[in-house]
Write a structure and sequence with these properties.
Methane Monooxygenase Hydroxylase, Chain G, domain 1, alpha/beta, Flavocytochrome C3, Chain A, domain 1, FAD/NAD(P)-binding domain, 5-stranded mixed β-sheet, single chain, 5-stranded parallel β-sheet, 3 domains
Amino acid sequence: MEPAIHVHDVLVIGGGLAGLRASLELGRSGVNVVILSKVHPLRSHSVAAQGGMNAALANSPQGKDDTPERHAFDTVKGSDFLADQDAVELMCREAPSAVFELERLGTVFSRFDDGSIAQRPFGGAGYPRTCYSADRTGHSLLHTLYEQVVGSGLVIFEEFFVTSLVTENGRCTGCIALDIATGKLHGFSGRAVLIATGGFGRIYERSTNAVINTGDGAALALNAGAPLEDMEFVQFHPTTLFGTNILMTEGARGEGGLLQNNAGERFMTRYAPTAMELAPRDIVSRSIQTELDEGRGFPGGYVQLDLRHLGERKIVERLPGIRQIAIDFAGVDPVESPIPVQPGQHYSMGGVAVDNDGASPIQGLYSAGEAACISVHGANRLGGNSLLEALVFGKRAGAAIGRDIGSIPHPSEGAVLAKLEQEQARLARLQSGKGKESLAVIRSGLGRTMESSFGIFREERAMIEGLAAVLDLQERFSRATIGKSPGGFYFGLVQALELGFMLDIAPVVALGAIERRESRGSHFRKDHPKRNDGDHLKHTLVRADFGNLSLSYKDVRLGLFQVEERRY
């Protein structure tokens, strides 16, 4: 049987907001682009984003003085001054046009009485600037872009799982992907590859992330020789539903929701007396965890998010999804009772190191969205900036590739064929293994280790022990039994490959966290509780050199705002 080789100008890996927006831009410029997604694009994790996207539209009476410059300052301050300020300024300047573009394409935003796009307060923001579609904003945006991509006739390979990138002479020239339904491997040759696969939240035990968020893109880039940046910065969302860790949007607090401990106190008065519940996520998460650790939580480990005072009409109008999730998964109607919430892993500030146009140090390899680190989030992302980043930098990456593609020669198919044969042999070995180790046990162990050693609070001894445990899990994975799928749909093989990617990523997170001996944003060290600008106002870069991880640093791009202590 002849091997399946597909030849295109650009391969986009990932069908979420960043991937679709980049593909739409490439399609408009006449580039032959193909999208590969391991799920149907409408099941991408972008669909789960609830609260909204930020833009300084100045629509609300409280926000009439808002500007892109003020949005940029709030973003840099929220990042604990680790964000690259030129990238932040660019994102905030282009934010209004990104919102208006999606509105014109068909996104149904919530409205104020005067017909303007509604904006709600979000954590760490000086003005109400989060544009929203009730509490299903990601859903609305993703459906809009998918309709545009389908209408443009772009080719999508659904349920194709990318197992490796192809490189030749220091250049990325394609990828290998598994057709999940048939188990057949396909080779894809392209002049450029864009990684837009989202984050890696599922390396943690408790996460708001979809089960597909296994760090595939970051691992693919790492294994191809690209550096990963700031991977130690992992955001924990303060309010996830107790028991399932489904996201309870920051929009609930933006609409006036209150956090209370087991004594009925609004405990945020102790931690952020001015911003209260609308302090940045890292601060609110640490505050909740402190309440739990000091015995002021409820049995099992949660506090309460109280929306009752908002009234049924406002909850139904602005937070219908939150109400339904609370009823369905916790048996609690927030109109009548507080919602039990606890912190859970939510977002990855780190990712593939790229410039403002999404280009990595490897020629032909680009990245955008949560898979990338540009860096506009630094040590802590503000709510409402992730959808914005995906759209602004997805579009910019698509435009940059469109400009660059004319000077990039068509690669030979030889490297793709050689890599295809290697991957066929590797997957055959995986499926024929006779080991006694259980994939489920290894994955569960990884989640518990990351939660306990690299969670909201960190310290060196526990992290060193955690890294050793992760490396042990890597070794055990080599002896795991996978088996073959007898009737098609090779989900067992996909889960094994995903676990392999997660085990590639976890040591990178661990190494960066151990070596960053300070507390900044989401990275809080009990043994180094202060921020250390003298030694650590810099980005972490990790590469895999012949299987061994090496760590280096690069300077943060400053210039717009003076570095100062962060207070709320």
